[in-house]
Amino acid sequence: MGLSSNRVEDLSGHACNETIVTISTTTTTTELQISSNPPFEVHRVCLPPHKTTLQKLRQRLLEVFFPDDPLHKFKNQTWLMKLVLGLQFFFPVFEWGPQYNLKLLRADIISGLTIASLAIPQGISYAKLANLPPIVGLYSSFVPPLIYSVLGSSKHLAVGPVSIASLVMGTMLSEAVSYTEEPVLYLQLAFTATLFAGLFQASLGFFRLGFIIDFLSKATLVGFMAGAAVIVSLQQLKGLLGIVHFTSQMQIIPVLSSVFQHKDEWSWQTIVMGVCFLAFLLTTRQISTRNPKLFWLSAASPLASVILSTLVVALLKSNAHGIQTIGHLQKGLNPPSLNMLYLSGPYLPLAIKTGIVSGILALTEGIAVGRTFAALRNYQIDGNKEMMAIGLMNMAGSCSSCYVTTGSFSRSAVNYNAGAQTVFSNIIMATAVLITLLFLMPLFYYTPIVILAAIIITAVIGLIDYQAAFRLWKVDKLDFLACLCSFFGVLFISVPLGLAIAVGVSVFKILLHVTRPNTSVLGNIPGTQVYQNLSRYRTAVRIPSFLILAVEAPIYFANSTYLKERILRWIREEEEWIVSNKETAIKCVIIDMTAVSSIDSSGIDTICELRKTLNKRSLKLVLANPVGNVMEKLHQSSTLEAFGLNGIYLTVSEAVADISSLWKSEPESNI
């Protein structure tokens, strides 16, 4: 196939000789408002090197699924070294283990014991939030951290139950099964949902599909977590007020209605204790937030509150009838729960759906937390490997009486501030939980439920990030709308539907950007060869006889019709401006293709149709700086031949200079 211009070079067999012709622009400097740099060079527009379809497919798949090239360490290595690297790749413990020493151990012991003081009361509290027995929260703080310490790559991620996943699981399962009337079935569904959460998470990592969780945008999560925090806090009014009969619904109106409908159940002893300890927890949290060196205050305060409140109730048990307590907790290690998995029956779809939704949220939080602290310490974590680690951790947990776990932001922040050096701090934490399970469970008999409610409120109140919402309003109104939809959807509809609405708004935003891309009119900045948006740069000026447009998106079937209509509208508006200002008529339309990263057959057809339409109006269409992928498709579709000798240029400035010189050298009637 022949090429349309001697400035278009095929690179399939040889290098591109870029300079083709030299043009002096000194005679047109004043008229065109372009740079007067002597002799101006017009460069060839090169086609990309030839590749077969299989080569293109391979490159595309590598870019989609392996953008970080995870196997680059294996190149040019011996088989023995590849075996060692393989073990380190799948089991990061073999990477940091050989270099472990007493100095690192000392730091990890301190941080591990510190996060254990936070993990034990939070584990019990979050299990109650998921409507599970408190002991399950402790089980979930023992086995999963051990699994993650072998498979995980984050040095600071502290693993265990988290509030959002607990809330979602409790909400979705309680809609179909009562945890008070059918506790065994509820527990079976919780373990089964954890299994499917782990399967889903591990599958995403194994098949390199981690980009799917990116649909949960920052704006969506800000609104969702704030709404969930409000709902969780209101739900804890049951414990803070001592209410026995309380609604299982999670919407704001039923929750508030239930609070005031059961005023006769309010317990003044519970309220006094709850308010005092809640004030204590919030105060220590505020002190630690303002002075990070005092992080141990907020880390130790939950356990201190549990110990102190338990002592108070135990000493005043004869006078504390209105204060509900946890009661008996079974001692011992996690019992196996493989036989409790609910793998057939009418509730299996519910377990699968709950597992996928809670698994996505847990994965999103865990990956985000891991990347945050990795960035602070200047190391990288592999997102897909983390997904596999978290997924396998939950799969193992489902068989050992655990529910969905992931990396907790609050515990990870404490772990980081306490000086954790490796993931071994999770093993220290799990050891502390193990000692608690084996020997200390009877001590929780008199622990008041109100203290668990206070701990949960203190933990989730930090999820309300009003500053982030304000930034969204200032930066992107559509993101702010997604945030509001997520927030109010969780409050007034339900947790999963609120999340679905927010994701829908985010997807709509993506579609809006794809189907309605930005276009703009460019002008020359005097004294340079730079062309920028006329509405942004007041110094930019129009070039007489030219209309220069920029398209800032790929040209696909979804936006091709819109772009054609929008370009024709730009031309009409420019002609109206020319008439009103008595300027020179348009003779050439240049489309700057710099930001057009790709094009499909519909986009090519649109360009051809636009060229024909403009030809009928005696207007020349020129393309400037098409990228390699676009050039290749224009060449293969024979579109380049239709554009002729002067239809493709490397830059806008070269197009303006070359075409202007042609107009100067040829009679106007022949143009």
UniProtKB/TrEMBL annotation:
InterPro entries: S04_transporter_CS, SLC26A/SulP_dom, SLC26A/SulP_fam, STAS_dom, STAS_dom_sf
Major localization listed first in the record, in broad terms: membrane
Keyword Aminoacyl-tRNA synthetase (UniProt): no
Stored PROSITE patterns: SLC26A, STAS
SUPFAM superfamilies registered for this protein in UniProt: SpoIIaa-like
STAS domain segment(s): 536-659
The protein's name: Probable sulfate transporter 3.4
Natural source organism: Nicotiana sylvestris (Wood tobacco)
